[in-house]
Model the fold of this input.
Amino acid sequence: MKDEKVIQVHAVWDDAAGVWVATSDDVPGLVTEADTAEELEVKLRAMIPELLIENGLIDESEHTSIPFHISAERDSVANAC
Done:
């Protein structure tokens, strides 16, 4: 991308579905899920450039690195006996 902005991705653990769900205000249309954080990162590496191209935010002929940051959220409970 021309301004070298770091794409912000927000991932939330969906306990009921057992998956990480990721969205981003920086990438129109980005919604995906994966069983693990590692799988999610792999999917994002493919989806982010595809969606940026589809939305006209980068040119398909641009060969550039697109930095992104994943912030993850997961609720849990600790029990004291």
Remarks:
- The mean pLDDT is 94.
